[in-house]
Every structure is written in C-alpha cells, then in structure tokens.
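Module 6 notes. Inverse folding takes a fixed backbone as the condition and produces residue identities as the prediction. Think of it as a translation problem where the source language is geometry and the target language is the twenty amino acids. Below is one complete input and output pair. Work through it position by position during the lab.
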C-alpha cells in the first residue's frame, strides 16, 4: 500500500515541476491586441456595442411576449383595468 502512495506522489511531484512554455502565451503589448474586435473606429464600436447590449437587454422581454402570444393573451391591453 505504501509503495503505491509513494510512487503516485513521486509522479505527481515530477509532473508539477515540469517547466512551462511561455512562448505559447505571448501577446504583443499593443492597445486592443487582446480584444476579439477592432477598437479603431469609434462609431463602429458604438454601433456594435449598442446592438449587442440592446439585444441582450431585449431577450427577456421578447421571451415574455412570446409566452403571452402562445397562450393567446395580449401582452399589453391599453385602457382602464378591468373591474
């Protein structure tokens, strides 16, 4: 039993002390190089962010409308509340 514990701990210690390669994870230190989109055009960035965030905000409301639509009930009925 003890031999298997010692052999596993020796293997684990050897695996931990293995040097890691830092050249695989190198990025140039330039503004915007770590982002998956371009930040050069301010108007384009504003349009993309507004679309992305606006759609994310609208999803729950679209889902609520769809559930009411499936049930056959109006989502919004103007006028005074029913008595």
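Target side of the pair, the amino acids:
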């Amino acid at each position: 039993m003890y031999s298997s514990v010692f052999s596993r701990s020796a293997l684990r210690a050897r695996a931990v002390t293995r040097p890691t390669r830092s050249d695989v994870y190198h990025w140039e230190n330039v503004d915007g190089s770590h982002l998956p989109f371009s930040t050069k055009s301010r108007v384009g960035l504003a349009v993309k962010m507004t679309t992305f965030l606006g759609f994310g905000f609208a999803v729950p409301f679209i889902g609520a409308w769809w559930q009411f639509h499936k049930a056959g009930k109006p989502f919004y009925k103007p006028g005074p509340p029913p008595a």
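Reference fact for the lab report: The longest helix spans residues 42-71.
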